[in-house]
Structures are given as C-alpha cells and as structure tokens.
Known about the structure:
Largest sheet: 8 strands, mixed
Mean pLDDT: 76
Low-confidence stretches: none
Strand content: 25-35%
Structural class: alpha/beta
Shape: elongated
Strand order of the largest sheet: 23-24-20-21-22-19-26-25
Number of strands: 26
Radius of gyration: 60 Å
Number of helices: 11
Distance between the termini: 235 Å
Amino acid sequence: xxxxxxxxxxxxxxxxxxxxxxxxxxxxxxxxxxxxxxxxxxxxxxxxxxxxxxxxxxxxxxxxxxxxxxxxxxxxxxxxxxxxxxxxxxxxxxxxxxxxxxxxxxxxxxxxxxxxxxxxxxxxxxxxxxxxxxxxxxxxxxxxxxxxxxxxxxxxxxxxxxxxxxxxxxxxxxxxxxxxxxxxxxxxxxxxxxxxxxxxxxxxxxxxxxxxxxxxxxxxxxxxxxxxxxxxxxxxxxxxxxxxxxxxxxxxxxxxxxxxxxxxxxxxxxxxxxxxxxxxxxxxxxxxxxxxxxxxxxxxxxxxxxxxxxxxxxxxxxxxxxxxxxxxxxxxxxxxxxxxxxxxxxxxxxxxxxxxxxxxxxxxxxxxxxxxxxxxxxxxxxxxxxxxxxxxxxxxxxxxxxxxxxxxxxxxxxxxxxxxxxxxxxxxxxxxxxxxxxxxxxxxxxxxxxxxxxxxxxxxxxxxxxxxxxxxxxxxxxxxxxxxxxxxxxxxxxxxxxxxxxxxxxxxxxxxxxxxxxxxxxxxxxxxxxxxxxxxxxxxxxxxxxxxxxxxxxxxx
Length: 557
C-alpha cells in the first residue's frame, strides 16, 4: 500500500512538473545583462572619446613629459602626450600622443607641429607663459587631403604658417652670401618677410634659399626685382666718393636680405610663387646686373693701372656709361707680346642702357655710333677719382684729331679703344721736357754775366754806403741840429704877424679905412679923367659947347 502510494505520488509530481514548466527568462538574468550592456557602452564611449593615437618625432625631449605635455591649437587642448621613448636607432625621440576625435580632421600631410617654450630671438622673448604652465606642442592645421599619423616636430616655429597669404621666392647665390633661417627680408628698410630655408648644393656649389614675402607686400616682388644681402653697415669709399648704407636695427644685428627695383626701370609684373632669382652680394652689384646689354672694348694702357679695379666706372664727360670688368684681361696673350709689347690690357663694358630712354637699347645702333665717335677722336684716359684711396676711373673724351688719328686695331677679337696718358704722366712728360730744355741752355755765359752784374752791384752798394756815411756826418753837425729850433721860432713869429693882420686888429681896421678913402678919391677923379680923355686941352681952355641935337626926318611912305 505504501509502495503504491509512493509510486502514485511520483507520477503526480512528474505530471505537475510538466504542467508548471515556464517559457520566459528568469528575472535573475536581468542584472548580468544590464551590467554587460553598461560595460560595452563604457568601452565604446571610452574608445570614441580617447581619439586617435599619433607618433611624433623630435630631436630632443626637452620640456616633454608623458601625461603632462598637451597638444594645443589656438590655446585649446586637443591632445596629450602618453609616452616618450628613444628610437631604436638612438637618433631621435619618439612620442606617442592621442588626439581628440574633433581634432582628427587636422591630422593631414602638411600639418605642422612645434614645441612652445621660452625663446629669445630676433623678435624678442616669446613663450614666457610656459614658465609656469610648462611647455606644450602647438599644432598648425594643413590643407592637404592626405591623412597621416606620423609627424616631425619642428625645432623652431615655422616662418610662414600654412594658410598665410604671400609669395614664396627661391634665391640662388654664392656661399659667401648665405643666409640663415629666420633672417628678415626687407624692402627699403621695412620688414616684409622671412627666410624660410637655407640649403647648400655641393654639386653646383651654390646656396639655395627660400623666402616668404607676406601679403600685401608680395606685389612688390616682380620680374624686375633684385635681391641682395644685407651685411650691417655698408661703407664704401671709392672713385665715386663716400657712401654709407645703414639698415634697420634688426638687419644690422642679424643681417638678412633686401630687395628693390632700379630707379629708372619700370616696376614690372608680379611673379608667381616659387619664382627663382639671383642673390647678389650688395645693392651696387644688384643694380649693376640690371644693365645686361653691353658692348665690349679693350684698353691697352701704357701707363700704370695702380688704383684701377674691377667695377670702377667708365664715364663720358661726367656721365657713367660703363664698367671696368677685368684688370688685367688676358695678360699673357701672344698678341700683347707681339704687337702691343708692354701695354696692359683692360676689358671694359659700355652699357647703353644707362643712357637709353627705354628699357632696351639698340646695340647695333650704339655700335655704329661709337665707331663714328672713335673716328672723330674718342679716346680713354685713366683719371684719379679719390685722392684719399688713390682709386681711378676710365674717362672717355674727344681729342678732335679727326679720322686719321684712329687705327682700327683688335685684341683677342675685340676692338681696341685708343688711350692717352694720364694727367700725372702728362705732368711728368712736361717736367722731363722742361729739364731737357734746361740741360740744352748755355749756362756759362749766363753765369759770367751774372758775375759781372754782381760785381757792379757790389760797387754800387759801396757807393751807397759811402753816401750814407756822408749824410750821417751832415746830420750830426750842430748847426743842422739847431735848424728845427730856428724853424720853430720863425713859425712862431709868422703866427704873431698873421695874428696882427686879423679883422679885429687895429692895423687891419686902419688899412680898411685907407682903402675906403682911396676908393672915394678915385670916384672923385673919374669926371676929370673923362673930360681929359675927351678934350686933353680942357685944362688950359674951356670945353667946346655941344651941338644942338637935330631931329630926324620922318620916314617916307
């Protein structure tokens, strides 16, 4: 009975278990599922907020600390340095940094990064705010469409930032004209740009520089622009006088490069970016290069060329028309030894562009004109330009000798321009001629005559000496010495006498009265004198009575 009851109860239990089986998830699983979802969300959120990891390459890790050094754009944090390690080849520092998702579009090929820290440069002191906050990495977004996660951090802030308006210019110059990155670019003393890069080409043995001229000054760079090195105070003392060029204080300290245009040339057309120009040593060399059209002539100088150097001016009646190019030029030429003996050849360039009204000169026309001037007596002379330095220049002038004075000669294929002696050589020649004439004079007769004249002069001097002695003896006599006293007494007596004849003296009044009486007597005698004149016998006889007057008859009608 008991066994049957147990079996029945088991069957009932199985039936009840089958009937009470649940089809839904138990509530106990809700907690782990929610925890799993939260974990996945946290992982996703952390991944999306962490941003992209980039690799930076630096030359040194000064001021860079993992977990502290930030990456900024316009003072806004966009990333953080996570790890600082040394590269496997031990040549540089590798930094792992993470950028926020919003800044990931900035991670392109031409993006620039540099470390901001306290610096002392040409423009003053910068980065002082990092003394307290610490150094950070500045990011300048680029414009490229190519994404990357590998960047090289610059040692210095970039000269021209991406997006800055302006023009890039390439300069090619000699090694002596090298510039440094950051040197100023000036136009008439105003800083308008910077030197971006400077490299040396060992094959061409040239310095290659890249300049950046900022907007709005980029329009000043044209196809007629000339660039030259600014080397502090440029003082020049030559045949053209004293010149001093003092640049800006910044250029005076750091040098740099300047550019400009020739005064009498047009401005020209603006150039595109990456245009190439030549870098000259100074402003004078840059302006000289403007006259690229020239005629070559050779001077065969028989006198000394001391003081004549390359670059000396060639002038025509005070106007510069050319430049001395070489002193001497092809000195060992066989033509000089055979035909011109010891003359020193000098190569000159006549530059018609200095006198031409337009930008270009007609060389053929000028060649014909100069040939005609040579036929009419054009010649060259070395003249002193500066007495202090002793520098000389070439002066062209006309001597008026006419066509027969010029001989068509050539030296090493170039026409020879006639030369005349310098002023000093002419003076020396005149002195030599004068000495020759003096040597040709017959000096002995002249000296004999001079001897006779000297003897006669000596006798005359002796006579004059004797006469002087006689005069001294005469003057030393007592009577002659008393003569001034006698003359003084005589003058006193004469003064007394003249005083007695003054109008107030009695003698003068008595003489006046006598003269008045005499005048009255003469007036009384005048009738008697008139009568005697008319009738001399009137003293003895009476005067004849005068005839009665007869009236005149009236005039006939």
